[in-house]
Known about the structure:
9 helices; 7-stranded mixed β-sheet; alpha+beta
Amino acid sequence: xxxxxxxxxxxxVDITDAIAEKKSLQVKYVFGTWAENLKKLENGEIDVLVxxxxxxxxxxxxxxxxxxxxxxxxxxxxxxxxxxxQVEDLDKKRxxxxxxxxxxxxxxxNLFQEYNITYEIVPMPDSNSVVQALKEKKAxxxxxxxxxxxxxxxxENVTYKPIITKTTHIYYxxxxxxxxxxxxxxxxxxxxxxxxxxxxxxxxxxxxxxMDVKESGRNMYRLFFFIFGVSSIxxxxxxxxxxKLKKEIKRKAKEIFKSKMYFQSIFxxxxxxxxxxxxxxxxxxxxxxxxLKM
Length: 294
């Protein structure tokens, strides 16, 4: 989206500018609706499109990088006073989506089959049209990505609902015949930024999505040490039990050996003829010395 001065801004603008600077690329931003930009990319009118969810169908039309920019899922939004708590609540509703988006395809091909519900799909060209449709009651709810919650286009009375479906990954998409070196430059720069907690990538996450990387890092360390501590205790318990088990096995083995030796001594020294046979086949398995002397 653009700021009040008409300048492109947002998470992807921040990281794209950083990639361009790092890899000496020139970037010119082109505006249009989501459906228009997808068509421009397909026709080769633009080189790169940001914020594109990967699908096998899209991979036939566009070229995707190997490094995902973000992890995403499909989220339900509606006016604040509307109540939606489970997917079944979407039955017989009018659902707004961005035209040709991953959410649009999901409504057309999957959701009704997976949950056995019916609904009316209301395709919209852009986010402003979606919000307007909700306000004017032309749609009951909106199916978008999780980042719409942080968008400046979302008014306060449009809120997310506790319904999440279909996790996916967000990539840069390139025109099909673009030079592979361009894709590789985006991949390598994005990979480097994602592996540096002080990079523009994480500053942009914190700026646009309120994701505090430092706090996340601290939480990750706490989680690591907690898991390490619990694992150490479990390993100690297993080793202790294993030691006890080995002792018990040795003790039982000795008892069995003694019992066998005791039985063998009685079997061999008995003055009476004794033989052992298989109850099922009748085969003789063993005889004692008294029987052999007969």
